[in-house]
């Protein structure tokens, strides 16, 4: 880096530390995050507040300083013959006053805003016009920078200059990384042209082409790596063959509590195909709350046990582990199978009998939390490991479960009730086979969702009374946002008191549940609600994941504007678990942002978790959605999963086709792929990087 003209040792060190840029390749992939359009000049009379920014050429008449302390500012008058405007600065005032020239000719650039009957630009970019000073024109790149870089005069303009030097020098050495066939099929521009035009675009049209080409390439190599890993896993890792089905038949004929949906049958068929293939299964099972994933998991366990193997189910919290255990125990007992539970609160005394039972194979199924990962937990023959809510467990933890069977790694089934948009699933779980349960069990009615404003509260109380008269129960949920726990707690207590006034004892019993309560108090409140001793449970979001109460038919969400879409959807999933019609009421104030309106409208329009997840992805972006910075997903430099779904689909199909035809890239037409991967070296895990 330091040998590049305009960089030198000190700047190279700064780029290393501040932006993680060590090589020419790193620098080329430090893409601009936006462009300033300097292709045209405006006159002051043409300015309009709808312009994101404008460039004006004119003269600086005079300036003065006003205000005190933090409000101190320099205000200048700028004219161009068609009118005059104000320029305002709040920072760097001493330096400014030394450098500004009265009657000097300048180009100013910034966002025009009307103020006191004329336009003004706050903190404009100011370029001095004189013969030996080159003005910026065209589409000017703006790069992500840090304060330290700016202080050392490494701003976007400086980075742009360095980039031009690098591109001019690197031009003969930049090689094509995609096969001709793909370039022609998708009408992509070449790699060199793309890199030049992403940093120094010749026009807006060239910039669009450069973005399209680089996004496709990045997603293509991302998918190539994920699919290759999946194929390699299938070649390298054998799986136990589960061919016997006696237990399964017995369960189907005598004990299945309800007919399976078409989606459940389809998923079980996919799992069964994996089990008899002789290869290790790595499958993601997606299904909304209440879609019947647990029964599918149990039937998969039966297939394993039928063939002399043991099964385990790992959940992220004790509440979820208990719920799975309590849900599966009646089935296991009816089948004559031994099922145990292991969590952080399992006593030492119980562990002393539990560990040997597992090791000797007396325990067929074990449900637990992270406690299952402990070295002391050993199996006779672990054949199937089911992981619930995968995004809460890291790759290292999954690998630890693999090691629990040193002979043949267990089959892995990952379950999630968080619907993941298709584009995200392709990148986050592209190395897993994906199964989806996309229909609700028979007899379940879709939850009716309505949006009401605060003035409708008495109407909602009346509706709650009607439902309670029918013998149903109601949740009322208040938001909890860390910044102001005092305020939120007050909201909850105020709400609780107004509900107590509207639903007086002894006719109504009301429970309360919040994060400040001790675990046993929370459990006690939840159990009272479950036993129907309380009709209304006023709670914070601690009930988001938790106990299944089929009799609860109404979910009222207070201040719904303060919740994210996926959280609203998860909360709504607490009702609608029985055969009765259930309702979700979203209460909000009147002032709603456009994003909030979209969230509320989406909730009212659809119950489909995947549709909701797609909207959420567009509103929040992938990082927020997964809550993880998972490598392979967040390593994307230019592609945006919320917007680039069609490009991702094309990239994945292309990668799949090439790997099917030529898995080792030996055909001459795939030489660019082979050369690119070889140049990166085996250490580099992400093939979408520039060599």
Task: Please characterize this protein's 3D structure.
The protein is about 40% helix and about 20% strand. The protein is an alpha/beta fold and about 700 residues long. Among the domains are: about 45-135, OB fold (Dihydrolipoamide Acetyltransferase, E2P) (Beta Barrel), CATH 2.40.50; about 245-275 and about 290-415, P-loop containing nucleotide triphosphate hydrolases (Rossmann fold); about 450-605, P-loop containing nucleotide triphosphate hydrolases (Rossmann fold). Strands 6-7-4-3-2-5-8 form a seven-stranded mixed beta sheet. A seven-stranded parallel beta sheet has the order 12-13-11-14-15-10-16, with helices on both faces. Helix 8 crosses helix 23 (about 645-660) and helix 20 (about 595-605) runs antiparallel to helix 21. The model is unreliable at about 625-635 (pLDDT under 50). This is ATP-dependent DNA helicase RecG.
Q: What order do the helices and strands come in, and which of them pair?
A:
Blueprint lengths: L7 H12 L4 H5 L5 E5 L15 E13 L6 E7 L4 E6 L3 H7 L5 E6 L2 E3 L2 E5 L2 E4 L9 E5 L4 H5 L4 H15 L9 H6 L5 H9 L4 H33 L9 H10 L6 H14 L6 E6 L5 H13 L4 E5 L3 H17 L4 E4 L5 H12 L5 E4 L13 E7 L6 H8 L8 E6 L5 H7 L4 E5 L10 E6 L3 H13 L3 E5 L7 H18 L7 E4 L5 H12 L5 E4 L12 E6 L7 H8 L10 E6 L5 H12 L3 H12 L1 H5 L18 H17 L9 H10 L11
Parallel strand pairs: 4-7, 10-15, 10-16, 11-13, 11-14, 12-13, 14-15, 17-22, 18-20, 18-21, 19-20, 21-22
Antiparallel strand pairs: 1-9, 2-3, 2-5, 3-4, 5-8, 6-7
Helix pairs in contact: 7-8, 8-23, 10-11, 20-21
């Amino acid at each position: 880096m330091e040998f590049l003209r305009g960089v030198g040792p000190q700047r190279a060190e700064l780029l290393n530390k501040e932006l993680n840029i060590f090589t020419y390749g790193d620098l080329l992939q430090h893409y601009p995050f936006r462009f300033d359009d300097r292709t045209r000049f405006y006159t002051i009379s043409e300015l309009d507040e709808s312009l994101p920014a404008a460039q004006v050429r004119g003269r600086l008449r005079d300036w003065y300083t006003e205000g005190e302390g933090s409000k101190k500012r320099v205000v200048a008058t700028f004219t161009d013959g068609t009118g005059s405007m104000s320029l305002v600065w709040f920072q760097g005032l001493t330096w400014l006053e030394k450098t500004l020239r009265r009657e000097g000719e300048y180009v100013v650039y910034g966002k025009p805003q009307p103020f006191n009957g004329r336009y003004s630009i706050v903190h404009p970019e100011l370029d001095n016009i004189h013969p030996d000073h080159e003005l910026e024109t065209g589409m000017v790149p703006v790069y992500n920078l840090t304060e330290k870089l700016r202080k050392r005069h490494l701003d976007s303009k400086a980075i742009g200059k360095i980039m031009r030097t690098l591109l001019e020098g690197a031009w003969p050495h930049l090689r094509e990384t995609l096969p001709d066939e793909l370039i022609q099929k998708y009408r992509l521009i070449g790699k060199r042209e793309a890199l030049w035009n992403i940093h120094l675009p010749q026009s807006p049209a060239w910039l669009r082409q450069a973005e399209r080409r680089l996004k496709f390439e990045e997603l293509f190599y991302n998918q190539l790596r994920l699919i290759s890993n999946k194929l390699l896993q299938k070649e390298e890792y054998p799986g136990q063959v589960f061919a016997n089905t006696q237990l399964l038949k017995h369960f189907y004929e005598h004990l299945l509590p309800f007919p399976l949906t078409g989606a459940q049958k389809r998923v079980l068929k996919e799992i069964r195909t994996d089990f008899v293939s002789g290869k290790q299964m790595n499958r993601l099972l997606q299904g909304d709350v209440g879609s019947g994933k647990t029964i599918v998991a149990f039937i998969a366990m039966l297939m394993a046990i039928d063939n002399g193997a043991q099964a385990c189910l790992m959940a992220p919290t004790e509440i979820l582990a208990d719920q799975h255990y309590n849900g599966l125990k009646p089935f296991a007992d009816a089948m004559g199978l031994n099922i145990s539970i292991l969590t952080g609160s399992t006593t030492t005394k119980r562990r002393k009998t539990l560990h040997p039972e597992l090791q000797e194979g007396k325990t067929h199924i074990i449900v637990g939390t992270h406690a299952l990962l402990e070295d002391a937990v050993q199996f006779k023959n672990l054949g199937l490991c089911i992981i619930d809510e995968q995004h809460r467990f890291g790759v290292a933890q999954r690998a630890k479960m693999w090691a629990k069977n040193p002979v043949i790694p267990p089959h892995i089934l990952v379950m999630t009730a968080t619907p993941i948009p298709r584009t995200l699933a392709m990148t986050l779980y592209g190395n897993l086979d994906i199964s989806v349960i996309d229909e609700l069990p028979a007899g379940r009615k879709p939850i009716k969702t309505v949006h009401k404003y605060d003035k409708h509260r008495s109407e909602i109380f009346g509706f709650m009374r009607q439902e309670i008269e029918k013998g149903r129960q109601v949740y009322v949920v208040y938001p909890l946002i860390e910044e102001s726990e005092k305020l939120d707690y007050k909201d909850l207590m105020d709400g609780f008191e107004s509900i107590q006034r509207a639903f007086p004892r002894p006719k109504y019993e009301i429970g309360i549940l919040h994060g400040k309560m001790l675990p046993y108090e929370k459990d006690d409140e939840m159990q009272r609600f479950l036993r129907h001793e309380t009709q209304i449970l006023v709670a914070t979001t601690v009930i988001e994941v938790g106990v299944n109460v089929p009799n609860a038919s109404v979910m009222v969400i207070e201040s719904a504007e303060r919740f994210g879409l996926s959280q609203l959807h998860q909360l709504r999933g607490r009702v609608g678990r029985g055969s009765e019609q259930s309702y979700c009421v979203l209460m909000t104030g009147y002032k709603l942002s456009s994003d909030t309106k979209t969230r509320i409208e989406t909730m009212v329009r659809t119950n489909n978790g995947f549709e909701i997840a797609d909207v959420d992805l567009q509103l929040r972006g992938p990082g927020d959605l997964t809550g993880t910075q998972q490598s392979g997903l967040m390593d994307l430099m230019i592609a945006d999963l919320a917007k680039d779904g069609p490009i991702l689909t094309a990239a994945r199909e292309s990668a799949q086709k090439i790997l099917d035809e030529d898995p080792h890239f030996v055909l001459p037409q795939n030489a660019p792929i082979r050369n690119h991967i070889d140049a990166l070296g085996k250490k580099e895990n992400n093939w979408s990087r520039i060599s």
